[in-house]
Design brief:
Layout lengths: L8 E9 L5 E10 L7 H11 L7 E5 L2 H10 L6 E5 L6 H12 L4 E6 L6 H4 L4 E5 L2 H12 L18 E3 L4 H10 L4 E3 L3 H6 L10 H12 L4 H8 L3 H11 L13 H20 L10 H18 L5 H12 L3 H5 L3 H6 L5 H9 L5 H9 L6 H9 L4 H13 L18 H4 L3
Parallel strand pairs: 2-3, 3-4, 4-5, 5-6, 6-7, 7-8
Antiparallel strand pairs: 1-2, 1-8
Helix pairs in contact: 2-3, 5-6, 8-9, 8-11, 10-11, 12-13, 12-17, 12-19, 13-16, 17-18
């Protein structure tokens, strides 16, 4: 039997966040199995079959120059964007493949350091840059970000180019400078540690956006499925609601360990009243949105990796495990303390705190795939005897199911722009 292309590679991913702090696309890392050659055409067909018009745009990031050349040779013009590392352009065969791909209309992304942009002839082959700020450029950008506009005084130059993609941005100040002041198209990854640092004393409150949306749907008598789906977008809100449902003052059945059961027990009227009570304490910080969205994505991936089948209660428990796996960083308290204050399944505690039990392999794998370094993912699959083909398929299925509303000017647009303007020259 012919081996599927998904059984010969290892995938990882990284979200791309836009100026609205929403998902603009996904960077898909592709490691090649050293034993089996990769059929690039088969891989591209597989991606095409699994993606829909509302799935997030893809940026393919191959780990080897050979796979890059194969993708450049066989990808049609409507294929996902393809990353080309700067150091690989020193190879004549790769450079020729880049020129040929550009002539066929492929959308290519140059990846490299901000202090060493390609020369104009090579730059003309690329639609965008994925840039890492050099230490000197990062200092200069921080100075530009710190200086408020003053009428009549010239602003310091910033090395951050408009409409490009940036990675390795670890500072909240630089993130805001890139996205809000310099209108970068997207950030690959997010400065989560620096954003969360400001909440280390009191933890994070639920999102005003999610609470307000829930109030609207509750008042409109939407189904419990819709309410559960919306609430699940905010791990902190889920945590607080479960704590509320298990509060002795409510006098409800003890040991409510799932969001669906809590919603059914409390009902629309009490839920609406509780949501109104949350409004004075909600937070309106868009910089938190990518952090919570990434946790939700991990929970969705973990749920599908464990393959709970048609057992809905089990699927919800697995999802809750992924949703609470980073509750310590959100609440500012030890994870063991946070999980033990609720009547959760021991399986959730074991996976998130002691890293044992039946859910631990799926949680470890879902966490590992949030990374460019795919070696650990391969090792985990071998350790837990998980089929790499199925793991890759589950990841692609999870990513393709993320809805991304079409928006003019976003990462996935297909309009050809001026090559010179792309690199700010």
């Amino acid at each position: 039997m012919t081996k599927s292309v998904l059984g010969t590679i290892v995938l990882g991913y990284r979200p791309l966040w836009n100026r609205q702090r929403e998902l603009a696309g996904v960077q898909l890392f592709i490691e090649v199995d050293p034993v089996h050659p990769v059929d690039a055409r088969h891989l591209l067909r597989t991606l095409e079959e699994m993606w829909t018009p509302t799935s997030p745009p893809l940026l393919l990031s191959p780990h080897t120059p050979h796979l890059l050349q194969e993708l450049l040779q066989h990808a049609p013009a409507q294929a996902p964007w393809i990353e080309v590392k700067d150091e690989w352009l020193d190879d004549v065969a790769t450079l020729q493949a880049v020129f040929a791909a550009r002539n066929r209309g492929l959308f290519l992304v140059w990846r490299g350091n901000s202090e060493k942009l390609p020369d104009p002839e090579v730059a003309a082959c690329f639609e965008k840059c994925l840039l890492t700020l050099s230490p000197e450029d990062a200092v200069q950008a921080a100075r530009a970000a710190a200086q408020a506009p003053v009428p009549g005084i010239e602003q310091p130059d910033s090395p951050v180019l408009p409409e490009q993609l940036y990675e390795g941005v670890a500072s909240r100040t630089l993130m805001r400078h890139c996205l809000d002041q310099r209108h970068a198209q997207a950030l690959a990854g997010w400065p989560a540690d620096d954003v969360l640092h400001g909440y280390r004393q009191h933890g994070i409150a639920p999102s005003m956006e999610v609470v307000a949306k829930l109030i609207r749907v509750v008042n409109a008598d939407e189904s419990m499925e819709i309410i559960e789906q919306i609430m699940s977008d905010d791990p902190v809100l889920v945590y607080r609601f479960l704590a509320h449902a298990n509060s002795p003052t409510l006098g409800l059945q003890s040991g409510i360990d799932s969001l669906r059961r809590a919603l059914m027990m409390i009902g629309y009227t009490s839920l609406g009243r509780w949501l109104e009570q949350q409004l004075p304490a909600v937070v309106d910080d868009l910089d938190l949105k990518p952090i919570k969205s990434a946790i939700v994505l991990r929970a969705s991936l973990m749920e599908m990796l464990l393959d709970a089948g048609e057992e809905h209660e089990l699927r919800r428990e697995v999802y809750l495990c992924g949703l609470f796996s980073q509750m310590d960083t959100l609440l500012g308290e030890p994870l063991g303390t946070a999980t033990q204050t609720l009547p959760l399944s021991e399986r959730i505690y074991d996976a998130t705190v002691t890293h044992t039990g039946p859910y631990e392999p799926s949680l470890a794998l879902a966490t590992s795939m949030e990374n460019e370094d795919t070696i650990h993912t391969r090792l985990l699959c071998e350790q837990h005897e998980m089929d790499i083909e199925e793991v890759n398929r589950v990841l692609l299925r999870t990513l393709s199911a993320i809805y991304v509303a079409p928006a003019d000017g976003e990462f996935g647009e297909r309009r050809r722009r001026s090559r010179a303007h792309t690199f700010g020259s």
